[in-house]
Structure prediction request, 480 residues.
Amino acid sequence: MKQTKLKVFRGPALPFSTEQQEIVRQQFLSATISANLPYQWVENPEVIGLFLLFCSTATKVIPSQKQILGPLLDKADTRVTSNLKRTLKGWYGVLSADEWKDDSKNSILGVNVAVRGKTYLVDLIQVMAHKKDGEAMCSAFEDAIDRVEGKYGVIIVAFCCDNDGGSQRGIFLHFKGHSKPEVALAMAKRVEKQWAALDQPMFVLALVLNPFEGMDHFGDRAEVTQFSLQTILIQTYRCVKSRPSVATDPSKVQRKEKELCEAFLSYLSSTGLFEDWKDHKEMFQQIHGNNPVAMWKTFLQTSSVAELADFAILLLGISVNQAGLERDFSDMKIKKSQLRNCLDLERLEKMVKHADLLEPNDSDDDTEKTLGSKLIKSRSGWRTAMAQWIEKERADSDDKVDEPITAPQRRRTKWLPHSLELLFLGRKDTDIDEQMRRIQRKTAYTEEAQLMELVAAEEADEDRIPDDGELEGSGDKYDG
Prediction:
């Protein structure tokens, strides 16, 4: 018996203009990259039959596999590069680099740049045959910085690899107050180990130049003074602002440094233009949120403070982490699978960049509004950050035992580096104390300690909210 011929319903014959055909083909490229579809899916008879159900002229606009991997991808890469140049040009950025290996164990160095809280993949480099010694890696990183600055016009002010800043101070204080001493000691050591490897002056200055934080959180043993902060400020400023390829007038540089230091000392002492900041801080925060950049932007047009404002915005806008690279590596692992083992590096880079372009872009206003929200201010936010950080530490943990952190026995000639314990423990009552007291702690109280706490509470302000674990009531009515 002869088999009945399969009849497929065809959709209406819709004409496509040249412009519409180009839009449809570009959308096929975006769909292929976004959904990580095999390149030959556009030539699959069942897929073609599906599109014919919607439009009988679909075969005229469906691109071939060669078109997707050739002219369509090249044209999209040109558009992505042009968008990146407009986005990055003239902005301060942080360059990060990390190594990734594909299924064939080829080593690929990913180079990412972070600008205004968002990361962008800018380069993939095959490093299989490259030397891995310190001098060779330093030279490779310098070349990467020059190449990115020359191509995209971004100003690289910091570089990071394999370690990030994180919320080291908050994590340290959180675990230092843990109810189990062994947990507190072990985690404090681990955080101290990460903190010791970081560029401490940059992070300390970012804390101090945050007008919602300031100097209130340093401990009594931190040995911090306005002059020690001024020293690390001018050292960091010279390190970040020095551009060997740009000839500058020494007198002009000296004048800018003087303006920077004078404005910084005025900021620390709350005088001059900063005299009434504390009086209006609460109202400013209600209107503009807790984004410190918003405050410093108001001083960009004031000549005496403009240099400090620009440098503060630079430091507060630095994003020192490799989350963007890790996300790109995850995407690359999907795109360059065992079935696509022969995918060359140039084409892989184009596909990953195009995938980043497909993500929804935040406008400048939206980015400005969300920068402040990334600062952790609530208990739930801290718990979430703690859980993520603990999970990462468990995955990377080793059996190595670190030496305990000890305080220096003689006066230091250089203020930093300092341990977190010396910087932030033993501090006076400040706003951070009120925040950290709200972290639940299971502390064993003796009967005498309970009586003393009740007497202190009776003499305190009636409107004060009691801490977690604190007893309410009168000491006279306490029966034990």
